[in-house]
Design goal:
The protein has helices at 12-20, 39-49, 59-65, 85-94, 110-122, 140-145, 161-170, 208-212, 231-249; strands spanning 8-10, 25-31, 53-57, 73-77, 100-105, 127-131, 155-158, 174-178, 184-185, 195-200, 216-219. By secondary structure, it is an alpha/beta fold. The chain is elongated.
């Protein structure tokens, strides 16, 4: 019997990225109507090289497995292995980079988490930290909306975010939280040091304990009538301001 939907990767690019990242896949299902060109051909080539079984099935079978737009390709995978905080920091230091860790306080929408992971990969984030409870995990929808970035960004799942922030501080990181009521503007702060950036949930923002464990709170300089941005968009703004400052400093 196939595994649960949370262990299904669907869509051409997410499946291709899983293969490129050598993610353990049990098998790949391809719609009989899919033309073996472009991404589909690359998927078949990688699967053959990695000795992964490929089955050509009716489109209806894929429709039964996933609710989203699968583009005629579904992979059955083991759950993505999670990273530890130590592994994330070691990877950053091993690359000779100042650590940049993204901490997410209770993101509940899988589409938002997927978009954030895609942005995190583009901005060079060394790892993402998510809570085990009251937040979305690494589901198939997350993998799909991340456009395969979930295969390249290490993710740690922790039981206590406040304690984890203290661990990151002890490792030499400066903890910066995004809060619309913060007194300081994002663009007024030096973000060229080792950082842990904390983004709050869609509705409530940062939790009280998490906010209290931040070294500094910053806000985006909103100019219109709406007081806040979607968390995935806000995360992109913050991360690429860090990128901008670090490249200007180098």
């Amino acid at each position: 019997m196939d595994k649960s939907p949370d262990e299904v990767i669907y869509g051409r690019q997410p499946v291709l990225e899983a293969l490129r990242a050598s993610r353990p896949l049990r098998k790949i299902l391809v719609s009989r109507g899919s033309r073996p060109s472009g991404a589909v051909r690359a998927i078949l080539d990688h699967a053959r090289q990695q000795n992964i079984a490929v089955q050509f099935v009716d489109q209806r079978r894929l429709d039964e497995l996933v609710r989203g737009h699968h583009q005629g390709v579904v992979a059955m995978a083991s759950a993505k292995p999670l990273a530890s905080i130590e592994q994330i920091l070691d990877a950053a230091r091993g690359a000779g980079k100042l650590p940049l860790v993204l901490v997410l306080d209770g993101i509940e929408d899988p589409a938002n988490l997927g978009a954030i992971l895609r942005t995190a990969d583009a901005a060079g984030v060394h790892g993402v930290v998510i809570p085990k409870h009251r937040a979305v995990g690494l589901t198939g929808t997350v993998a799909r909306t991340s456009a395969g970035a979930v295969e390249h960004v290490p993710v740690a799942q922790v039981t206590n975010l406040a304690r984890t922030l203290e661990e990151l501080k002890a490792a030499g990181l400066w903890v910066v939280g995004a809060d619309p009521k913060a007194p300081q503007n994002l663009y007024e702060v030096d973000l060229t040091r080792a950082l842990a950036v904390v983004m709050g949930s869609e509705g409530k923002g940062l939790g009280r304990l998490v906010r209290e464990h931040c070294d500094l709170l910053v806000r985006l300089p909103m100019q219109g009538s709406i007081s806040s941005l979607n968390v995935a968009v806000a995360t992109g703004v913050v991360l690429f301001e860090i990128v901008r400052q670090r490249e200007a400093r180098s």
